[in-house]
Write a structure and sequence with these properties.
With 277 residues, the chain is mainly α. It has one domain (9-274). Helix content is 68%, strand content 2%. The protein contains 7 helices and 2 strands, in the order H-E-E-H-H-H-H-H-H. The chain has helices at 9-16, 34-56, 65-84, 92-108, 143-176, 184-230, 237-274; strands at 21-23, 31-33. A hairpin with a 7-residue loop joins strand 1 (21-23) and strand 2. The longest helix is centred in the last third of the chain and has 47 residues, at 184-230. The protein starts with 8 loop residues before the first helix and ends with a helix. Residues 1-6 and 120-131 have low confidence and may be disordered.
């Protein structure tokens, strides 16, 4: 339950949207959102440790509940890859599994209490008292995190396209598709238009991935803040618990759905990049 917001609901929400930031030197342009990086790294390590331990203890006989859960997740992801990507899945399925589980873990942090302490790290402004700052638990509600994930997928897609068609074939496709012609003069005229359309198509993919995930998680976080701010007193304690619980239950669907969408779009983009026009 959130504490009574000081200065009104707007100030309460704005205050909670600040990141714990570390500057790379005095007056440096680049700042690191420490909370997003720490949470993302820890969750990624936990995911790898969990699956590694289950794989190490896996048996061919009757599986334990933990092994059965891991096998169910792996089989689910592999089925999605098999239905969408019709090439060698040995590298695509592990990538899709890592994306799905990592994004789901990152999104699930939205279910933790809102007013978590900052563990003594200064706020983004660097002027507030340490006990007045908060640790933002949801890395995917930070545009920097989603853009980083989307850019990683973007470069992976480019690499798959070059691997399937070769660097020259990939470059040729950028210049000659989707408009084709036999006349060399017409081909030369169409090159700028083809290149522009393909660049827009490729750049729209990371933008779409990043903004969709960020928008949904940021909006969900704002709803939690609104509920916490509107029901911040002892008199409204019970309604606040009820509304927060209802939204959290519904938000579980959003958490898993956004992870699934991010994974599926990644698979689709890779499959499209490997196809020849």
């Amino acid at each position: 339950m959130a504490s009574e917001p000081q200065g009104g609901l707007t100030e309460y929400i704005q205050h909670h949207l600040h990141h714990n930031t570390v500057s790379l030197g005095d007056g440096a342009f680049m700042k690191i959102h420490l909370d997003s990086i720490v949470v993302a790294f820890v969750l990624g390590a936990l995911f790898c440790l969990w699956f590694w331990l289950k794989a190490r203890k896996a048996t061919s006989g009757v599986p334990s509940k933990g092994q059965a859960l891991v096998e169910l997740i792996v089989e689910f992801v592999d089925t999605q890859v098999k239905d969408t990507f019709h090439g060698d899945r040995r590298t695509v399925t592990p990538l899709a599994l890592s994306i799905f589980m990592w994004v789901a873990f990152l999104n699930a942090m939205d279910l933790l209490p809102l007013d978590a302490p900052s563990f003594g790290v200064k706020s983004v402004a660097g002027t507030e008292a340490m006990h007045h700052t908060f640790f933002r638990w949801v890395p995917t509600a930070d545009i920097n995190t989603t853009v980083g994930l989307a850019l990683a997928v973007f470069f992976i897609v480019i690499a798959h396209g070059m691997k399937a068609k070769g660097a020259l074939g990939f470059g040729k496709e950028l210049m000659t598709a989707p408009f084709h012609a036999e006349n060399p003069i017409v081909v030369a005229i169409l090159v700028p238009f083809n290149f522009l359309l393909n660049v827009v198509e490729y750049l729209s993919k990371p933008v779409s991935l990043a903004m969709r995930l960020f928008g949904n998680m940021y909006g969900g976080e704002l709803v939690f803040m609104l509920i916490a701010g509107l029901f911040a007193g002892w008199i409204s304690f019970l309604p606040g618990v009820i509304f927060n619980t209802a939204w959290a239950i519904f938000h579980i669907l959003i958490i898993l759905l956004q992870a699934f969408i991010f994974m599926m779009l990644t698979i689709v983009y890779i499959a499209t990049a490997r196809e020849h026009h």
